[in-house]
Amino acid sequence: MRTPDRKITDILNESSFTLSAEIVPPRNGSSFNEINDQIDRLTSSGTQFLAVTKGAGGSLRGGSLPIAQMIKDNFGKPCIAHFTSRDLLPEEVENQLIDHHLFGIRNILALRGDPPQGVEGWTPREGSYPYAYQLVEQIKALNEGRYLERKGFAINDPEKTDFCVGVACYPDHTVAEERIRFFKQKVDAGAEFAISQMIFDADSYGRFLDDCAKARCYIPVLPGTRLLKSRAQAARMASRFGIPIPEWYNKILPETDKEANPTASLEAFLTLTERLKSKGAPGMHVFVLSDTDLAQQALRFLTPVEAKPRQIGYGRFIG
Predict the structure, then answer these.
(1) Rounded Cα distance, 15 and 251, in Å
(2) What is d(CA 52, CA 202) in angstroms, rounded to the nearest whole number?
(3) Scanning 119, 155, 156, 223, which has its CA 20 to 30 A from the CA of 200?
(4) How far is CA 211 from CA 29, 61, 216, 269, in A?
(5) What residue spans define the domains of the chain?
(6) 3 φ, ψ to 5°?
(7) How many CA atoms lie within 13 A of 165 on its CB side?
(8) pTM above threshold 0.85
(9) Tens-place pLDDT, residues 272-283
(10) HSE on the CB side for 58, CA within 13 Å?
(11) Residue 27 neighbours by CB distance under 10 Å
(12) What angle do CA 15, 195, 219 make, to 5 degrees?
């Protein structure tokens, strides 16, 4: 069994403001050298932990678990492994979680997972989990030593897993009531931290923290974002993910991709960082796709502050 990873909640509790990055596994058949180089550059640029996505939208990108294990063991950085339950039966979920446990992976981002892109009328596999909170419940059950029952078999004194469970949240969800209700279900099920969908509006993040406090959802919420190169790219992001790009952000960026320059991208990112800090963000979580150079520069600008106790990012206590 591999050496267990360090929990993300411990890092959040000890740091006044964390820096982290999220990477995507290479497409199946691609050279592994590129992802290895990307990890090396990000881990040496100030990140305190990384996250590895699971192939979204039915894409052919395997390797999430071994990449997470490599980051932990070879690069000495804690890592969050995305885990999607879409189309998995509870028995398959348990088996795959045990794989993570035995590899020493302790940080799981529990996701339902997106339907395959371009597939109309998709419905979850019968018997699988239609909601992420159900996956959280199963992970927490394993942490308590409660495994799925199999007729005729019993385990005396079952070994407990020790996963630290994170979830996604959606501050810009268009339906206000669902925005917090879905999140609260995950928190009540046992989620310990959250990472937001791609966000560029600090006011939206702040309102979400207020809603969390009113609903008594007191877990750290890391804002997830990426560096944008142009207004054209911002428009594509807004259209694809249904997220607002504030006017102030667009004004900093050049109009087209051809006019892109690192200075403008960094200025917009650093301005957003300061605004999110002022709203109580416990750190910045940077989504890194093909823009490793830009992400590396941004992370180097934001050198982590010395670890110390903090009381931010858990929502605002009301009354």
Answers:
(1) 32
(2) 25
(3) 119
(4) 44, 36, 9, 25
(5) 8-228+281-301
(6) -65, 130
(7) 24
(8) yes
(9) 999 999 999 999
(10) 8
(11) 11
(12) 60
Type of residue found at 258: K
Show the 3-state SS of the chain: CCCCCCCHHHHHHHCCCEEEEEECCCCCCCCCHHHHHHHHHHHCCCCCEEEECCCHHHCCCCCHHHHHHHHHHHCCCCEEEEEECCCCCHHHHHHHHHHHHHCCCCEEEEECCCCCCCCCCCCCCCCCCCCHHHHHHHHHHHHCCCCCCECCECCCCCCCCCCEEEEEECCCCCCHHHHHHHHHHHHHHCCCEEEEEECCCHHHHHHHHHHHHHCCCCCCEEEEECCCCCHHHHHHHHHHHCCCCCHHHHHHCCCCHHHCCHHHHHHHHHHHHHHHHHCCCCEEEEECCCCHHHHHHHHHHCCCCCCCCCCCCCCCCCC
pLDDT digits (tens, 9 = 90+) for 187-226: 999 999 999 999 999 999 999 999 999 999 999 999 999 9
Q: Tokens for 240, please give them.
A: 């694809």
CATH ID of 8-228+281-301, from 3.20.20.220, 3.30.2350.10, 1.10.443.10, 3.40.50.300: 3.20.20.220
- pLDDT per position in the chain (319 positions), as tens? 678 999 999 999 999 999 999 999 988 877 778 899 999 999 999 999 999 998 655 566 778 999 999 999 999 999 999 999 988 999 999 999 999 999 999 999 999 987 666 667 777 788 899 999 999 999 999 999 999 988 778 788 899 999 999 999 999 998 888 899 999 999 999 999 999 999 999 999 999 999 999 999 999 999 999 999 999 999 999 998 889 999 999 999 999 999 999 999 999 999 999 999 999 999 999 999 888 999 999 999 996 444 333 443 444 433 3
